[in-house]
TrEMBL record:
Pfam families: MMPL (PF03176). Keywords: Cell membrane, Membrane, Transmembrane, Transmembrane helix. This is MMPL family transporter. It is a multi-pass membrane protein.
Length: 709
């Protein structure tokens, strides 16, 4: 902070140097965007699978098979009477040119006579190639099937193709929605036709630079990422960056009331705002880096990318934004232009000060009422179930999912997505015995050899239980009991991967969540030089998280009709809520500490609430809205994460930070800072430790203090 408050502040805010800093920031950002570009990376099948788990090992062993880069597509024909069209359907399938050589495809009718299936392979060297192959296959089939027959393409190839398709242009859409939401809320917040353009431009530039630098860093360290990583990163940079900008501009506006020269005003505002911004950024960076301990590669990628994004956002806001603001006169705030001599936010009889006075009148009652309300909202946690079936993964159901559901109506449930058993042996006798042992299981409908070569054999199992739910878990447990008797034999496929992801998500929560809390506590303890205050602040954010998750459970199950929440939702939402939710408490409490040195802790928290109430509320609403925009992406899991964070941020901003934390501070007084001792300078200099502190227009009296030598 000393370096920032010295020569660096003069450079950023100086009359002769500010334009250079702003121009360099613009050129640097533009150079990164135009000259460097986002890193490219070919996705790998194990990117989203937990390292070391059996289904992941199955995929790794399966890659040793001497097969072409192909993926399986299942064609589902349905009609009132499909048997009469079987000959025509066989001709349709025989005429298909998938680009992959192999045995002739067959058409297998269902026993109920309303459906038939055919299995083909398509090229799959890249995700784009799979998408193109499946699109061509669907087009050819629709043009050639007989009248009265409906055709759908499902199976692993179709799922990959549909996932690629729904993400095509999704991040561009997300960026457009995010920027639009930020622009509208900034315009409403500042009520100025010009001012909002400056922070939006700076944060928008930071967002693009962060995406490029993050992917380059990930590529450099060999950490995987997927389509959703950049989307979440963009939301995080826009949300956090705009929050930091709001805080800085609020302090700048206050200092313009004390300084005639705008450069001097920014020189006074920047160090004070930077203290809170750097503290906030540090807690977020420390928090997101805990994701590096996840067993899922793409989760680790999100953690590293988010850390890069927060550093870039804070850097742009602390360096480029103040330099850009001082290039313009105070007219930039028109029509509410701040003038020298006007009273600052801390001393005004604002709406937030009136809220604080009501809390100060009965702090214990407000503490009890707030905690009771949060507990009631968190009641949904008693019903919480984690696990989202494939049919509920997308906001708009793609053809692959619809085809799988139709297939399950006429064929065994597991036919559309067979479970695979991969073993490191080609010994015929061993394979035959393994097949025989698996066929004895009640949950196994059929077993066939799917591929063999280079010392590896793959078996394809059709489960009678389907690939999801408790029955599927029980079936997989029985299958793994059989395969566990052979060395290097693993069970894979969608059912096995879903079970392993549930287990790995639970492992990540047990390891990462306590670490996030410990690191954030240590960071707050270092910032505030206190033990009790950090514990209270973190506990308040945890209360917001539990209430938000409980409400979200009811929202998605009782209102929207989903069967549960995705296993990753608690981890992601907890991480971002704790890291970002603590921000608002940092903004409030650091200002309280600043005011407490003059008027004492009890009066200080009321003045801090008055000074920061508007900006923190604006920042919280903006952050909540930005995370809600995740709902425009096609994955339900991202919509669920966005909803939990949106609700949690609103609770933290409007209830916890406005009522609960001030009520606790008012109740504890100077004990809130324990073991640190914070007393007003006036009381220290006069020795009158029990003198009340009364401000103009505010009858609130602080409690007795203690003289400090």
């Amino acid at each position: 902070m000393r370096a920032l408050s010295g020569g660096l502040v003069k450079t950023v805010t100086g009359r002769r140097t500010a334009w250079i800093v702003a121009l360099l920031g613009l050129l640097l950002g533009a150079g990164v965007i135009v000259g460097l570009g986002e890193a490219d990376r070919a996705p790998h099948p194990t990117d989203t699978l937990p390292v070391g788990y059996e289904s992941t090992r199955a995929v790794e062993l399966q890659e040793q098979l001497p097969t072409e880069d192909t993926a399986t597509a299942i064609i589902v024909f349905s009609a009132e009477e499909v048997d009469g069209a079987l000959e025509d359907l066989e001709q349709v399938v025989a005429a298909l040119d998938t680009g992959v050589e192999g045995p002739p495809a067959f058409v297998q009718p269902a026993e109920d006579g309303t459906a038939a299936i055919s299995v083909v392979n398509v090229p799959a060297q890249t995700a784009t190639e799979v998408a193109d192959s499946v699109a061509d296959l669907r087009t050819d089939l629709r043009e050639s099937v007989p009248d009265g027959v409906e055709v759908q393409v499902t199976g692993p190839a179709a799922v990959r193709a549909d996932l690629t398709e729904v993400f095509a242009g999704a991040n561009t859409t997300l960026l457009a929605f995010t920027a639009s939401v930020v622009a509208i809320l900034l315009l409403i917040t500042y009520r100025s036709p010009v001012l909002w353009l400056i922070p939006l431009t700076v944060v928008g530039l930071a967002d693009r630079a962060a995406a490029i630098l993050a992917t380059q860093v990930l590529a450099g360290f060999g950490v995987p990422w997927d389509e959703s990583t950049i989307g979440i990163l963009s939301v995080l940079v826009f949300g956090a960056g705009t929050n930091y900008a709001l805080l800085l501009i609020s302090r700048y506006r206050d200092e313009l009331r004390n300084h005639e020269d705008r450069h001097q005003a920014m020189a006074a505002a920047l160090p004070r705002a930077a203290e809170a911004i750097l503290a906030s950024g540090a807690t977020v960076v420390v928090g997101v880096l805990t994701l590096l301990l996840s067993v899922t590669p793409t989760t680790r990628g999100l953690g590293l990318a988010s850390a890069v994004g927060i550093i870039v956002a804070a850097g742009f806001v602390l360096l480029m934004l103040p330099a850009a603001l001082v290039l313009f006169g105070r007219w930039i705030f028109w029509p509410k232009v701040p003038h020298v001599g006007e009273e600052g936010q801390a001393g005004r009889r604002s709406a937030w000060r009136r809220v604080g006075d009501r809390v100060a009148a009965r702090p214990l009652a407000f503490i009890g009422g707030t905690l009771t309300l949060l507990a009631a909202m968190a009641f949904g946690l008693t019903q919480l179930q984690l696990g989202l079936p494939a049919s509920e993964q997308f906001t708009d159901q793609p053809e692959a999912i619809a085809g799988a559901e139709r297939l399950a109506q006429s064929f065994p449930e597991g036919a559309s997505d067979p479970t695979s058993v991969v073993t490191a042996t080609e010994d015929e006798q061993t394979v035959e015995q393994l097949v025989a042992d698996l066929e004895t299981l009640d949950a196994v409908g059929s077993v066939s050899v799917g591929g063999q070569g280079d010392g590896v054999t793959q078996l394809s199992l059709v489960l009678t239980t389907g690939s999801e739910g408790d029955e599927a878990r029980a079936a997989l447990t029985d299958v793994r009991a059989v395969t566990g008797e052979l060395p290097e034999t693993y069970v894979g496929g969608t059912a096995a991967e879903a079970i392993d992801q549930l287990d790995s998500s639970a492992r990540d929560r047990v390891v990462i969540l306590p670490l996030i809390l410990a690191l954030v506590l240590l960071a707050l303890a270092a910032i505030l030089r206190s033990v009790l205050a950090p514990v209270i602040l973190v506990a308040s954010v945890i209360a917001s998280f539990c209430a938000a998750l409980g409400v979200s459970w009811w929202l998605f199950t009782a209102v929207l009709g989903f069967s549960g929440l995705d296993p990753i939702v608690p981890l992601y939402s907890f991480l971002f809520l704790v890291a970002l939710g603590v921000d608002y408490n940092i903004f409030l409490i650091t200002r309280t500490l600043e005011e407490a040195r003059t008027v004492g802790t009890r009066e200080g928290v009321l003045r801090a609430l008055s000074a920061t109430g508007g900006v923190i509320t604006s920042a919280g609403i903006l952050l909540a809205a930005v995370f809600a925009v995740l709902g425009v992406l096609p994955l339900v899991v991202l919509a669920q994460v966005g909803a939990v964070i949106c609700i949690g941020v609103l609770l933290d901003t409007l209830l916890v930070r406005t009522v609960l934390v001030p009520a606790i501070v008012l109740t504890l007084g100077e004990r809130f800072w324990w073991p640190r001792r914070v007393e007003p300078a006036a009381a220290h200099s006069s020795g009158a430790s029990d003198s009340p502190v009364i401000t103009a227009g505010n009858p609130v009296i602080t409690g007795p203090g203690r003289h400090r030598d």
